[in-house]
Amino acid sequence: MALIKCLECKKEISDKAKICPNCGMALKKKSNIILPLLLGIITPILIISFFLQSESESEFDYRIDKSDNSTSKERKKSNSISKTEAAYSAQKFVEKQLKAPSTAKFPSLNKANIKKSNDVYEVSSYVDSQNGFGAMIRSNYTVKISRKDNGNITLLDIKID
Ligand SMILES: [Zn+2]
């Protein structure tokens, strides 16, 4: 048993003592305390992070599986386009052809006439917009569109009178 000096009261006490018998200060034995302390902190962190990691990985795998399923399901839905989406896409394609797209006034989407044959949608409606002379004129249009395998709607034909 060796004697050490108490850091607080500087009196000599046993190095085995946990508390100084003179001043009551808890004795810190660095080499003896810090290593178990570090192990006690680091080990749970390593274990927890390992579990968190494996958990998020499996969650990620699950997400990939899910998205694969949904895309393959969408593909099986045979490239269909809803009436609203068809009418809206047609408006966008028509807008690009106009001299003054910002002046374009379309009727509501449900007023568009939509014919479907196979996967081709023919959308007929009209648009009011300014012509080259700044006068508002009404143009009838017919737009043919279809959905590509990648999901995008593509323009097949456009006629604006
Ligand atoms: Zn002391």
Provide an overview of this structure.
The protein is of the alpha+beta class. It has 2 domains: 13-77; 83-160. Helices cover 39% and strands 26% of the residues. The strands form 2 sheets. A 4-stranded antiparallel β-sheet has the order 3-4-5-6, covered by helices on one side. A hairpin with a 5-residue loop joins strand 5 (136-147) and strand 6. The longest helix has 47 residues, at 30-76. The protein is rod-shaped, with a radius of gyration of 38 Å. The model has no long low-confidence stretch (mean pLDDT 84). Bound molecules: zinc ion (ZN).
Give a short synopsis of this structure.
This protein is of the alpha+beta class. The chain has helices at residues 30-76, 83-97, and strands spanning 3-5, 12-14, 113-117, 120-130, 136-147, 153-160. The structure holds zinc ion (ZN).
Estimate the strand proportion: 25-35%
Average pLDDT for all residues: 84
- Helical content, roughly? 25-40%
Q: How far is it from the N-terminal to the C-terminal residue, by CA?
A: 107 Å
The general outline is rod-shaped
Number of beta strands: 6
Sheet with the most strands: spatial strand order:
3-4-5-6
Oligomer: single chain
Number of helical stretches of at least 4 residues: 2
Heteromolecules bound: zinc ion
SSE class: alpha+beta
